[in-house]
Model the fold of this input.
Amino acid sequence: MQPVEIISLVLFVVMYGLMLGVSKYRPFFSCGAALLFILMGQIPSLGFSFQPKDAVAAIDWNVLMMIAGTMGTVFLFIDSKMPNRMSDAIIARMPNVMWMTVAISLFAGFVSAFVDNVATVLMIAPVALAICKKLGISPVPAIICIAISSNLQGAATLVGDTTSILLAKAAKLDFADFFVDSGRVGMFWVVQAGALLSGLVIAFMFRKEKKPINTEDRTPVEDEVPGMLLLLTVLTLIAASFIPYKDTAAPGQLYKPDITNGIICVGYFAIGLVYEAGFQNKGALVKTSIKELDYFTLFLLAGLFIVIGAVERAGLIRRIGEVIAGIGGDGSRGSIFLIYTVIVWMSVIFSAFIDNIPYTATMLPVVASVAASLSKGGVQVDPKLFYYGLLCGATLGGNLTPIGASANIAGLGILRKDGHEVSSGAFMRYSVPFTLIAVTSGYILLWLIWAPK
Done:
């Protein structure tokens, strides 16, 4: 390895170690490492040039704008009480606790396909908590199932989770590509197959919970506009997905700017702010919605974009890709399957213990490099096989442990505030079978869809 590759590797590993060990300060570590890479780029003897303008260019502003805009609109959506009202309508039709748990878990998953996972848990878990109190049963199993179902569906659409947004950027996917990609079955349907199987797992685990449900309470909806704005966000993203980007457009064809999706998400959030302030006189809500944006994640990602751009320029990404590709050897169909298997299940294991956002952001350029290296062996490898395998493993792997995903932490936080301390063993009693069936089904289907012929 070249000196600049060694230094980059050490700096990257130290940054990652600090983020794992002191999660409270992750954005400081990622932004600090980004600054160090910029300073490294000013040392001529290293043979590595990385200027401030390169750092700014490495940041994917479209991704950051999408996340910020969606977060803001979701906050207004939650405040309107519409999600709670939707949950009430579904639960009222369930005959007993078992079907209530299955229904509200699947509903949480459906919402999470379009709304941030943590926001989904914060919307729906309190409803389940209230129902369980009325029935005199423990809310722990129901809220665990809501959290892990939310994580599952985060991989279904472009706006379902930060990891999906990162993947879409790397693979140049639009909203519609998650449904049909290059004439093949999209990730949405792969996730739905996993959701169906995991729903059966939930039904089996709650097969003895046959206590009938009788609840007449209905959450009043205070404002329908935020729900309409969220729906319009999704529909506009779908419509925009049919317009190509510049690098994929035919000569003379209309194309869209790189930050189109970000403009859409931020634009509808801005409309929501104007509506709340100008027509509802809710200035305090406007201030709160801006204050409650997840700046932690935004600055964390901004720093990671710069760091990844720097290590890629240093040649480290290519080097790591070559090492992983070397596991499979000759680039044959069998070796490609081996690499695919390593990527999926390595992602499951890592994401069970570490945040899947920095992991996914780091691995996306690596798996692209792996696909390029393996294609030199004579079999053309579509990088989407590895992209989708990474998304499957990294998104669903977080379900294995209580700390593997932010939605799990949010759900357990709600339980803790209500006086329920949940051990890792109790959590994994539900999460392990759920995760294994969901990942295995996705693992098999993605290989059948994207494997080289």
Summary: The chain has one domain: 3-450.
